[in-house]
Automatic annotation (TrEMBL):
Enzyme class at the top of the EC tree: transferase
Protein name: RNA methyltransferase
The Bin3-type SAM domain, residue ranges: 30-246
GO cellular component: cytoplasm
Species whose genome carries this gene: Clastoptera arizonana
Record's keyword terms, sorted: Methyltransferase, S-adenosyl-L-methionine, Transferase
Molecular function via GO: O-methyltransferase activity; RNA methyltransferase activity
Keyword Transferase annotated: yes
Superkingdom of the organism of origin: Eukaryota
Pfam family, one: Bin3
Length: 261
């Protein structure tokens, strides 16, 4: 298992919130994408609208869009009207979002500076959904973000986050950090600014954090776990959850509308 702690660009904010500017140099997108099977997506003939929480500089969002779009193209290769995939990537770092916007040439991907734990952030997400006449996403991605919410805001905030994202979708793709990553994050913050996570000593969900998250999603959010991937080279497992209830059928949307959201 690779330990990249010494290679990440560290300053006080990145060490506290995980906004590493060189993140994808040490967590390449292809290692995650190759673990995702093509048949895991629910493709019912409608456009697929996705949310990527903690998108960093957007490279993984772009790779996910290509992966899903390729699957759609193959599935509907004999159809005249092929569904589209749309992704909203959000991150709390304005610097990373600026970088994502600068490198994005795909009109079906939108990047916004958003704190999903804030009311204003939720409003931005709802505004995006309104462009599709929807109240929820087909897929929500959360790659390596749960730890940062947990460390900075505590047990209840993590639970509230999981409840929120699960209410936003019928399919959740989650890559939680295991407890060993928490210990590394604590050491990084001390090294970067001699700081501490004030909530760390008060956390009740600790060694079994991955199981705790899974239990919340299954028992309280009413999701079923449908797939667990193998570990990435950096020791993370991607888990797919689905809700039994399906979205209502909707009409396709003109991509030009998204540009104004």
């Amino acid at each position: 298992m690779e330990n990249v702690d010494d290679n990440l660009n560290l300053d006080g904010r990145s060490a506290r919130y995980g906004n590493f500017t060189n993140y994808y140099e040490f967590h390449p997108t292809e290692f995650r994408i190759k673990l995702i099977p093509n048949n895991v997506w629910d493709l019912g003939g409608n456009d697929i609208v996705c949310l990527d929480v903690g998108c960093n500089s957007g490279k993984l969002a772009q790779a996910l869009h290509q992966h899903i779009s390729s699957t759609i193209a193959f599935t509907f290769k004999n159809k005249k009207d092929v569904p589209k995939c749309y992704i909203l990537g959000v991150d709390v770092s304005q610097e990373l979002i600026d970088k994502a916007v600068e490198t994005n040439n795909n009109p079906y991907i939108t990047f916004k500076t958003v704190d999903v734990c804030s009311k204003s952030g939720k409003n931005v997400i709802n505004q995006y959904l309104s462009c599709f006449n929807r109240t929820s996403f087909d897929i929500v991605f959360c790659f390596s973000v749960t730890m940062w919410i947990h460390l900075n805001y505590g047990d209840e905030a993590l639970k509230e986050f999981l409840l929120y994202v699960s209410n936003q979708t019928d399919m959740l793709v989650l890559e939680p950090q295991p407890w060993r990553c928490y210990l590394r994050a604590v050491r990084r913050l001390k090294r970067a600014e001699n700081g501490t996570f004030e909530k760390f000593s008060k956390l009740k969900m600790r060694l079994s954090i991955e199981d705790d998250i899974e239990n919340i999603l299954i028992e309280e959010c009413k999701f079923n776990q449908v797939l667990k991937t193998e570990e990435t080279p950096w020791g993370r497992i991607i888990t797919f959850y689905k809700r039994k209830k399906k979205h209502k059928q909707i009409n396709k949307i003109n991509p030009m509308r998204v540009d104004h959201c």
